[in-house]
Amino acid sequence: MLEVINDFLSGKVLIVLIVGLGSYFTIRSRFVQLRHFFHMFAVFRDSLKSSAGQLSSFQALMLSLAGRVGAGNIAGVGIAVTLGGPGAVFWMWVTALVGMSSSFFECSLGQLYKRADADGTYRGGPSYYIQHGLQKRWLGMLMAFLLLVTFGFAFNGLQAHAVTHSLNNAFGLNTTYTGIGLAALLGLVFIGGIKRIAKVADLLVPVKTLVYIGVTVYVIVLQFDQVPGMLMTIVKSAFGLDQAFGGLIGSAIVMGVKRGVFANEAGLGSAPNVAAVASVEHPVAQGVVQAFSVFLDTFVICTCTALLILLSGFYTPGFEGDGIALTQNSLAAVVGDWGRMFISVALALFVFTSILYNYYLGESNLRFLIGENRKALMGYRALVLVLIFWGAIENLGTVFAFADITMTMLAFVNLIALFLLFKVGMRILRDYDDQRTAGIKTPVFDSAKFQDLDLDRKAWPANPPAAAPQAQAEPQGVPAAQR
To answer: Where is the stretch described as Disordered (predicted)?
Structure first.
């Protein structure tokens, strides 16, 4: 029954939602993800700055990448290629392209409707923009519950399963012991809350990402003469024009969209939870940064994995096996047996930070549902650690099907909310664009212009100090806060 429901939801509903509404947001915003593409790098550079006691935009980016860059970038791509052929990679690209606009709006709205806690830190996400933007508390609670179940519980079990079985394949390590070790290490980080999670993500995410990209690019460069032909095969297979993969066009679309969403999470409502905690001058700045993270996740990392598999010579049409083994054996076919070990270690780093991110999403939405309750928080942490250990040693076919269903339900609730709040998203985008057109390098959000919106005026004060136009000389020797 779960498989039947999952096939319908993820095979039909999810495609229409992600590609259909993502395309709508893209066209109505005049391709915001392309118009601001090069601006993303300038915002990314500025995001390295942080306010005292607050998480910087860069830290929020590392947190979101901690979640986006996980098992889906290794195992998920392998599964997509196995079941959908090379054409699945093209549909992953399509999903990411339109998903960049969805992520832009969901993260901008997450920032817009964020709330300031008593200690000055921020919290927000889809549940908050549904409650305060649509004035539907019950729908916000449903969204929070779905995020809690999907990320806090189901996805954590799946991630743990992926890494422990990968380490078992590469090193022969017992899944029980690796499951216990993984749960113990994660428990130490959970205790420190969002700031400790952010510090760990700051350290591990750039390292794991750059090392993985470096090794895969090395393999691709070794066979660079085959890359143009393989890219052509990917495009032709996506439309059933390659004879070897002509019968997989339906599977290519379904697997490309499904695994693409699992990898980059654009439109699911997960990234806005961490995007909201950052201290930024304008909500749109965080939307721009998070759109960049979708690009990095899919167009760079997932493409590296796909080309690694397709160029290795190990993969053949009709290949039977799991996605992790396919990626491990593909790298080993080019560089030797150490390739299997490298994939396992890389996957372990990917999964560790991804579980931290998933845990935070669950905790944030638990707080939305029941408020500050220390006993409930301790119970949640304990349950997550138990499920991580359970996922490490059990077969998770049923859990995977359940997670796909709740993921589709998340996309449905979140994307409909984004559609209903799209005019608000366009208003703040126009405000940001108008300031940039006027020559202001770093646009500043003034909540006085948006009195009709239910905003937290502590998070977004009225009449903040205006930013100087880009052409104007910066005052020398005067701290930015005083300016």
So the answer is: 459-483
Alpha-helical regions (H) of 29-56: 32-35, 37-46
C-alpha 245 chain-centroid distance:
29
Rounded alpha-carbon distances, angstroms, from residue 60 to 150, 263, 364, 447: 21, 18, 14, 22
Q: What's the fold here for domain 2-117+125-438?
A: Amino acid/polyamine transporter I (1.20.1740)
Residues 153 and 387: their CA atoms lie apart, in Å, by 7
Name the residue ranges covered by the structural domains of the chain. 2-117+125-438
Q: How far is residue 46's CA from residue 56's CA, in Å, rounded to a whole number?
A: 10
3-state secondary structure 294-328: HHHHHHHHHHHHHHHHHHCCCCCCCCCCCHHHHHH
Give the tens place of pLDDT for each residue, 340-396.
888 888 888 888 888 888 888 898 899 899 987 888 888 998 999 988 888 888 776
Residue predicted with more confidence, 479 or 240: 240
What's the per-residue H, E or C state across 182-202? HHHHHHHHHCCHHHHHHHHHH
Give the closest residue to 406 by CA, choosing from 298, 297, 269: 269
- Locus of tokens 């209903």: 420
- Residues contacting residue 200 through CB under 8 Å, at least 6 positions apart: 189, 353, 356
Contacts of 344 (CB under 8 A, 6+ apart): 163, 166, 167, 169, 170, 171, 328
Is residue 60 within 8 A of residue 70, CB to CB? The reply is no
Q: How far is CA 104 from CA 4, 22, 107, 164, 314, in A?
A: 33, 10, 6, 34, 38
DSSP conformation class of 13: I
Give the DSSP letter of residue 128.
H
Which residue carries 């999670």 as its tokens?
197
The tens digit of pLDDT for each residue in 207-220 reads 888 888 898 899 88
